[in-house]
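Hi V.,

You were right to ask for the full record rather than a summary. Here it is.
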Amino acid sequence: MYNFEVDHLSKLSNFLIKTLCATALLCAFGAKAWCQQPIRITADLTDHQRGVLHAHMQIPVQPGPLTLGYPKWIPGEHAPTGPLNQIIHLSFQADGKVIPWRRDEVEIYNFHLDVPEGVRSLQADLDFASVDMEDGFSATVAASDNVVVLNWWLLTLFPVDQSADHIELQPSLKLPSGWSFGTALPVSGQTGEITEFAPVSLRTLIDSPVLAAAHFRKIPIGGKHPVELDLGGESERSVAISPDETAHFKRLIAEAESLFGGAPYQDYHLLLCLSDPLAHYTLEHSASSDNRFVEDALYAPGKFVTTASTIPHEYIHAWNGKARTPDGLATLNYQQPLKGDLIWVYEGLTEYVGMVLTTRSGFWTEEEFREALALDAGEMATHPGRLWRSLEDTAVGAQLLTSAPTAWLTERRSTDFYAEGALIWMEADTTIRRLSGNKHSLDDFCKVFLAPAIQGTPKTYNFEDVITLLNQVQPYDWRSFFTDRLTKTVAEPPLGGISGAGWQVTYVPAAGSIVRGLEAAHKTDLLWPLWSGQATVDARFSIGLLLEADGTVLDVSRDMAAYQAGISPGMRILSVNGTAFTPEAFHSAIAATSKGGKLLLVREHHGVQAPADVHYQDGERFPALVRDGRQKDLLPEMIAPHAVN
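Predicted structure:
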C-alpha cells in the first residue's frame, strides 16, 4: 500500500539535504559573497579637474582562477553601454607583487587572473577618464572643476559568477576639500578625508549615484518616507532655488505618494546637477535619481519647462522599473543581456504618468501639458519608419536605438516606446474612464500595479500581469488593445487617448513655449537632448528638416518637401532665398510660403554646392491640440492635483 506520508517526508528530507549540500558547495567555490568579507572600494574624486576618477579595491579571494567583470549592461540605459574604453589604468597586486591579468577574448568586459597560493586579498586600482566619447549614456562627461557625478559602475569590478544581490561591498569616498555630496548610500563614519558608507550589495551600490560639488544645497521636500533635494552646481547662483520652485518639488512628492499609495523606499535623494560642462541627461535609481541640467536651468526664463517632465519621470521609476521591473530586465548581474520587450510599460507608462504628475505638481501649466501631448503625437507622425517597424520592435531593439545617430531617425524610428508608449497609455486611461462611467482611471491601475513595498529585490512583472491587473480595474479586451498597437505597422500614431479626452491634433503657424525652449536648449524632444552643442532649428512638421544652428542637416523625412528637393542628413544649408543661412531667416522664409513666398536653398555636401528648390506652400507648422466639442473634456480632471495640502 502506498504510504503518502512516508514518501512525502522522504522527498522533503532529500530536498533539504540537497539544499544544504548546494549551499556548502557555493561557499566553498571561490569564496562566495555570503561566506566572505565585503569587497572594499574607495572612490577618489580629488583629481576631478583633470577629468580622472580613481578607485582602489580590496577584494577577498581564494587561490586559483578568478574572473572579474566590469559592468556592461547598465540598468535604465537598456543597452550594453558600460564605458569600457574610458578605463585608462587597471592593475592588480597581492602581498606587494603584481598579479597579471588577461582580457577575455569573447566577453571583453571580463578579466581573468590566477590568484597565487596563500593569497586571500587582492588589491585593484582602476582609473576612469571622464571624457565625452559620444558612445551612449555612460560615456559622457562626469566631472568638471566644480561638480562630479559618480556612478559606481564607472569604477567597480566584481566576480562574474555571483549575483549582484549576493556580492557585498563596503564603499568609501574621498572628496576635494570643502565639497559636499548627496547620495542614497547610508553613511557609517568619517576617517580623515574619507567618508565611509555602510556595506551594501553590488546591486544597491550600482543603483546609488553620488552628486558631489563645491556649491551644494540640501533641501527637505517632504514625504512620509522623507525625500531630500540635493542641488550641486557650478556656482552659488546655479543652486539658488526659489520658494515657488521648491513648492513644485514638494508637490511632486505628495502627488506621487497619493497616486501610488505610498513609497517603495525608506528615504530618497533627488540629485539635481546644474552644470554646463557635464553631459545633460537623467537616469533612474531605486532611492535616488541622477538629473543633470544646464547651469542656469533654475533661473533662466524658459529653460526649465523643456526638462521639467524628466524629474517626475525618473522619480516614478522608483515604483515602475525598480520596485517592479519587467522580468526580462531582472538579470543576475551586469554581464547578462537585458530583454526589452516590455519597455513600453517600463518607459511608456512612466512617460505618460510623468507628464500627468509634472502638471499636477505645477511644473507645467495645463496649456504646456497639451503642447507636450501634441509634440509627442506630431513627432510620432513624422516617423515613416512606423510603416516597416512596429513599436514592439523599438522596445526589443532598444539597445540599438538608445545610441543610434540622429541621421535617418525618422526612417529608422527611435526610442518611440517613450512618446508613443505614452500615447497608448493615455488611451488606456480614457478607455477606463469611458467604460467605468468615470468611476475609475489609470490612477487605479497604477495603485494596484505599482503598490509600494520596501524590499531588497524588485518584484517582476510580465505581459500577463499587466493584462490581469487592468481587467481587475476595468474589464475589457486589453490583450487585443495592446497587441494591435504594439505589433501593427500603420501610418498614423495612436491618437485615441487624445480624441477620447475631447481633443484633436492640429497644426498651427506659431511655436509654443516648449518648442521655443527646445530649440534654444538644442533638444529635439522633451526627453532626449542632442549633443550638438548648438541650438536646433525645428522644421520637422513643415518641410521635414531638423537642423543645427549653422544649417547642418541632422535629419530629414523622406516623404516631405525637403527630401524631395534633394536634401539629406550631413548636408549643410548655406543660404535661404539668396541670403546667408540663419535660423531666423530660415523660419521667416518657411512662414512666407503660406503667402506665396518661395523657398530656394543652397546646400553643400562634401565641398560641392547645389541649389535646392523646395516646393512647399503651407508656412510654419507646429502640432497643437484643439477642442473637439463632440466629446467631454477629460484633461482637467486627468491633471487635477490629488494630494491633500
